[in-house]
């Protein structure tokens, strides 16, 4: 009892000292300055020494809401170069928090022109401009991508002008404001000057979207496929043979149908019904991974994104006994695949 009292009083004493310390300006200043140092200069999440193909999920959800998650966004780092596939709502905010070095971002690639895959292009433009981008932001996309970037440029023309005038031509030069849109051609490698990197786009079926792509990325023997949004038409499976990582979008018909049963809004009911015919089911995603001999399956753009353990278990029920080497991605999920190894290291970016 006496021992317990001593321990208790020591804990209280430490707590009180800590509390008093927090009221001291000197302690506050020291803590704040250390914190700010980490906030402003924390760029070591990227460009580490190890040569690897690295993936960071910068947006893991579909348009159905899920707290704390951004819409579709996959960052791929190969050596010192970064490519970003899709930029849905909230993804630019994530990239800013992760402190992505935009000067190393070679291009943004858009799988298809649904808003949940490109809504944050204007913020990507601003962040990269502030960090010293020296030419208009390169954006690869399906047929019509030039109209999208033209539209954003028109909407933001006053913003470009205001920021250029306020911060000056040296900091935000007006001649690099705007985008450089490049149309993707099916099965034609995306031109890039990253040694050892190949980015191969392939057509997927997301009808009535008339032009939608998936991508296969290879870097020095390590491989990843991004499905984009698609039905199971065989394309993803074809390009995913023996890849290290398949990043696939997936819908749970089971959960969407349960949502329809409890929903009372006719408009939402119609949408929840319609979305079922142009996405790959979670069961199909598992079968694709199994049949293509994929090493690991990373689910993103999940419909709906599981918000708790029970929902996650029900979502993945169709994969039981079928394909169990999978991960449900969250915003910040990172996959590191060092070259000349078979390692697939999955963790969470800070
Ligand atoms: Zn989508
Ligand atoms: Zn879509």
List the helices and strands and how they pair.
Layout: H1 2-22, H2 25-41, E1 52-59, E2 73-78, E3 81-85, H3 91-98, E4 105-109, H4 121-130, E5 137-141, H5 145-155, H6 157-167, E6 179-183, E7 197-203, E8 213-219, E9 222-226, H7 235-239, E10 245-251, H8 253-262, H9 266-274, H10 282-291, E11 296-303, H11 309-315, E12 326-328, E13 333-338, E14 345-348
Parallel strand pairs: 3-4, 4-5, 5-6, 9-10, 10-11, 11-12
Antiparallel strand pairs: 1-2, 1-13, 2-3, 7-8, 8-9, 13-14
Helix pairs in contact: 8-9
Residues 112, 114, 206, 209, 229 line the site of one zinc ion (ZN).
Could you walk me through the main structural features you see in this protein, from its secondary elements to its overall organization?
The protein is of the alpha/beta class and 350 residues long. The chain has a single domain (46-348), classed as Metallo-beta-lactamase, Chain A (4-Layer Sandwich). It is 34% helix and 23% strand. It is built from eleven helices and 14 strands. The strands form two sheets. An eight-stranded mixed sheet has the order 6-5-4-3-2-1-13-14. Strands 7-8-9-10-11-12 form a six-stranded mixed sheet. Helix 8 (253-262) runs antiparallel to helix 9 (266-274). The longest helix is centred in the first third of the chain and has 21 residues, at 2-22. The two termini are 42 Å apart. The structure holds zinc ion (2 copies). The site of one zinc ion (ZN) has 7 residues, from loops.
